[in-house]
């Protein structure tokens, strides 16, 4: 009797033990594992400040554990203790304020930062009281070639816009293109029949065909890295084929007006001279007629005197 109930009881206990090892979580509730700090590369940047301020630029293309090490040689006061803290983009970082002692005639401040996304980039500053500060500007590699003047092309024609990253910098993972629409940037789809995008390592190009007036504006190329995107832009201006001729046509019109004015002046001046020349002989005739009559009278008088 006792053996009959012991066997079912043993089976129940064994079933409970097995159920404890069954994972009851569903697939939808599984959390994405976080990347541990040890999996990220580590970088250290140290700066020794002998004055009041200094700016250090740091280019990052992938997530890192970044250690910023600040050393300040101090000023004439040489206080035994000073208050120090860290800021990001001008705002104090929480729980970073502390007091450091003067050691070996200098103050040292070190902080570890986990830089894993574009939001973590920016301006980090170690501040020594109110006397000194070191700025660390964290950014993705910047596109070196910047075009100041706009690209000019013609209606109905095509244009090719280039964008290039220096090959001494890390190679971008890919490139993207945008067109400005007011304050927004619209992603240019390569599938469009009027756009052709060709990416090749450190450079990219965008070809636009059948240009219209609406194609004028700002275009942005973006070099994408694991930690963020580096942007550059260029202006495109679309004009008609007659546009370059406008200065020449303006000069030509001015020349025609000037030549016409000169010809009119010459014509009027010539007509006036001809009129004056016609009037001069008449005046001479009027003056000579009395002189002839006077001579005739003188001749008649001399004849009369001889006869007498």
TrEMBL record:
It is found in: Membrane. Coiled coil: none annotated. It comes from Oreochromis aureus (Israeli tilapia). It is a single-pass type I membrane protein. Gene3D superfamilies: Immunoglobulins (2.60.40.10). SUPFAM superfamilies: Immunoglobulin (SSF48726). GO terms for cellular component: membrane. Its main location: membrane. Residues 274-308 are annotated as: Disordered. Residues 1-24 form the signal peptide. This is Ig-like domain-containing protein. It comes from the Eukaryota. Residues 33-126, 141-240 form the Ig-like domain. Keywords: Disulfide bond, Glycoprotein, Immunoglobulin domain, Membrane, Signal, Transmembrane, Transmembrane helix. Residues 299-308 have a biased composition (Polar residues). It holds the Pfam family Ig_3. The gene is EMB. The chain crosses the membrane at residues 247-265.
């Amino acid at each position: 009797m006792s053996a009959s109930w012991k066997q079912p009881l043993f089976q129940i206990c064994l079933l409970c033990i097995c159920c404890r090892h069954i994972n009851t979580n569903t697939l939808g509730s599984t959390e994405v594992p976080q990347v541990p700090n040890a999996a990220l590369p580590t970088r250290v940047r140290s700066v020794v400040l002998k004055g009041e301020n200094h700016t250090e630029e740091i280019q990052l293309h992938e997530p890192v554990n970044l250690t910023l090490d600040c050393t300040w040689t101090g000023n004439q006061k040489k206080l035994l203790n000073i208050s120090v803290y860290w800021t990001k983009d001008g705002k104090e970082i929480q729980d970073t304020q502390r007091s450091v002692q003067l050691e070996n005639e200098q103050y040292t401040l070190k902080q570890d930062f986990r830089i894993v996304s574009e939001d973590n980039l920016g301006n980090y500053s170690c501040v020594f009281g109110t006397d000194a500060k070191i700025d660390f500007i964290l950014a993705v590699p910047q596109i070196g070639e910047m075009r100041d003047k706009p690209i000019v092309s013609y209606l109905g024609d095509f244009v090719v816009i280039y964008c290039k990253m220096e090959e001494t910098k890390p190679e971008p993972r890919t490139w993207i293109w945008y067109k400005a629409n007011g304050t927004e940037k619209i992603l240019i789809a390569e599938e469009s029949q009027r756009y052709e995008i060709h990416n090749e390592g450190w450079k990219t190009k965008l070809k636009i065909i059948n240009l219209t007036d609406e194609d004028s504006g700002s275009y942005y190329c973006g070099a994408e890295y694991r930690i963020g995107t580096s942007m550059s832009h260029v202006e495109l201006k679309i004009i008609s084929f007659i546009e370059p001729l406008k200065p020449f046509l303006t000069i030509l019109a001015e020349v025609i007006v000037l030549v016409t004015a000169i010809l009119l002046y010459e014509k009027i001046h010539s007509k006036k001279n001809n009129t004056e020349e016609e009037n001069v002989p008449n005046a001479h005739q009027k003056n000579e007629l009395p002189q002839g009559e006077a001579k005739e009278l003188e001749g008649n008088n001399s004849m009369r005197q001889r006869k007498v």
